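Hello Y.,

Per our agreement to keep a running log of every chain we model this quarter, I'm adding this entry. I've kept the format consistent with earlier entries: sequence first, then predicted structure.
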Amino acid sequence: MTGQQLKITAVAIPAALDAGTHHSAGGTAGLMDFHECHALREKHELEKWGDLDRCPTAMESLEYWRGNQYEDRRLVIARLGQQTVGTCSVTLPLRENTSTAGILVDVAAAFRRQGWGRKLLEHAEAVAADNGRTSFNAYCELPSGTGDKDTLLIPAKSGAGGLPADNPAVAFADGAGYELEQVERASRLTLPVPANQLDALELEASSRATGYTLVGWSDRCPDELVVEYAVLKNRMSTDVPIAGLDWEAEDWDPVRVRQEEQSSSRGGVQSQVAAALHRPTGKLVAYTVANWRPGIPASIAQQDTLVASEHRGQRLGLLVKTANLRAAQHRWPTARSVLTWNAVENRHMLAINSLLGFTPAGYEGEWQKRLG
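Predicted structure for the entry above:
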């Protein structure tokens, strides 16, 4: 490392993406810091993936880093003189999971393997510990084909999948005392999916999913369904595989649902939801969400998908995904692919994605470090 002093600065999140008539919370410096952090993120996404499909837009990032009453979010930039070395961030849940913190470190290519990443990690961990957090969560993403067949893998503690030990991000996390709890597979579906293929899948699912009615909405859940939707959002936080991660159920209610919808809208994100209503009880028992951003018009992100445990085995996952895919293609005709993520041990959902035509597009490691 050089003899220069690393300057680590908390980013004051601006009120808008440009000065305009708005007065930025952190003044000009905050605005410049924010844009510098976002530019570094975009550069790394292009370096790793060759596109920005996985990258939030600047508007999304601005909305995200403002935080909310459910999560405090802190972004930091590090410089040597006028050169940006990297960024780190800490997210602190405020309503539940209050012993955990999310940590992310991003180092500019020219400054890697010089010890700066470790300094940024130490800073982020200190912030988390100062806020009473004893369990740190982190993730790393790897393209498909990273490492060869003879590469030594670090196995996930979930018992499914592993990541190459010689990958720099994997080695960094492992060397810093983080344990690989879970591996998720990223999958991509090329669009458009032919209508006759969707028809066939919908027919197959409908023949099993009797006693259910499909419902759907764009951007905002209907008032008459929002209570039931909140129940499913609560279950989504624990009913999906979470391996050994320290994570308790999130407390969702209609207010939180509306807050998330409003935040998405402010960030420029459009959402399409398909859900299954159980006719005998009137309860929502399955749902799936797709997101699209005008700034990344060729890509759709397939987000949450959940079937309540007592209603599994009825092909509801396939039913709602097929319906939502049809609606998404109609609403966002410029989209050319869909990206989604599933735990490697979630064989049932991966099988549904395979039926739809998804193929592997990368992996994500979920890491955890416990203090004490």
